[in-house]
Design goal:
single chain; about 350 residues; alpha/beta; 8-stranded parallel beta barrel; 11 helices; about 15% strand; globular
């Protein structure tokens, strides 16, 4: 392993995707799962989205459940392919405002020709090009979030001045496939920059994750592989001029806790098994707690992102069994350390680049 035992607090997140949420009240169904995760003090929940299959818009679902939750982070997937970067950043910033600083953004790309035909603007492109574009979208989003300084809003009724225009800035970004002048139409988000999450399993995604992600997910079937992936990502981050300590690396596992308190199935006792969907753990909540504790204690990962096979059943067993045991052993927190997702993850609020240039506090 690459680091000392117990190098940092354990972080936990879970997917709350549902193949068929109740048609009558889908928002209620998602909110119930998010509140269950919040009861376990999980850092955040994710909602997957893709142009490749029908379903509810993840960003809209996250916005709908934001007022019904109080602490858990909300991280919808928003693709950077076939979408307008200016609109994407404004939508994510809006989610941060309506959730009072709990928004995240899982960046993804749309690589199929079928997805491209939905828009008719261009054909499918290779993954390396799409992830390079995703990096540019992440970059311009951060610039647009900074295009309003934190005190740009005056709201002076007496003078009728709402904004100090000297504290709004053009970004004048020109990338390979798009250009954005700015500034944003949304004031700087409560977190400064909403948390960005990237699945860094694919080699093409690792550079973007190392440069721009706050949380990188790696699909590794052993602590050794997870540790190697984290070491690679942090080395890439350092080479890009970034402090690698600001990058959190989570192991991404599919979990099936249908076995209740029984021991892990043969082949799972020593760790997850590789499957087409990624590393899969099948067993009981107690054995899963042991696995999480062992990997984190060894310094292999900063946390875990868990995708339940059956969301309602497995998330309940995860919170009431696995998380409760980790909390009882003092390995996972029993309450949130703050109110924002950045605070949950132990990440500082970024200083506005324009205030920093002017030598002012953000």
């Amino acid at each position: 392993m690459t680091g000392p035992i117990g190098r940092g607090p354990l972080h936990l997140a879970a997917a709350i995707d549902q193949t068929a949420p109740p048609a009558s009240s889908p928002a209620d169904s998602y909110a119930e799962l998010a509140l269950l995760a919040e009861r376990g003090s999980l850092d955040f929940v994710t909602l997957t989205d893709s142009f490749a299959r029908p379903g509810l818009d993840a960003l809209a679902v996250a916005a709908s459940i934001a007022p019904r939750t109080g602490r858990v982070g909300l991280v919808p997937t928003v693709t950077t392919t076939h979408t307008e970067p200016f609109h994407v950043q404004a939508s994510v910033a809006t989610l941060d405002w309506v959730s009072h600083g709990r928004a995240g953004w899982a960046l993804d790309v749309s690589a199929t020709e079928a997805e491209a035909r939905l828009f008719g603007r261009r054909g499918a492109a290779p993954l390396d090009q799409l992830w390079d574009e995703a990096g540019e979208v992440a970059d311009v989003a951060a610039r647009l979030w900074d295009s309003w300084e934190d005190d740009a809003e005056i709201r002076d009724v007496a003078t009728g001045r709402f904004i100090d225009r000297d504290k709004l800035h053009y970004v004048d970004f020109r990338g390979r496939g798009f250009s954005v002048r700015g500034p944003s139409i949304v004031p700087r988000p409560p977190q400064g920059h909403p948390v960005r999450v990237v699945d860094a399993t694919a080699p093409e995604a690792r550079g973007t994750a190392a440069r721009h992600a706050d949380v990188a997910l790696v699909r590794a079937a052993s602590a050794e592989r997870a540790d190697a992936a984290r070491a690679e990502l942090r080395a890439l981050a350092a080479r890009s001029g970034r402090d690698p300590r600001t990058l959190r690396v989570f192991a991404a596992l599919v979990v099936d806790l249908g076995g209740g308190e029984h021991a892990a199935e043969p082949g799972h006792g020593g760790g997850p098994l590789p499957t087409a969907e990624g590393p899969s753990y099948r067993g009981g909540p107690v054995d899963l707690a042991e696995l999480i504790a062992d990997w984190h204690r060894a310094g292999a990962v900063d946390g875990f992102h868990l995708t339940p096979v059956e969301p309602r059943r497995d998330l309940e067993r995860l919170v009431n069994g696995t998380v409760a045991l980790l909390q009882h052993r003092g390995l996972f927190r029993t309450f949130y350390p703050g109110s924002t997702l950045r605070e949950h993850l132990g990440l500082a609020r970024p200083v506005n680049r324009h205030a920093a240039l002017a030598g002012e506090p953000s």
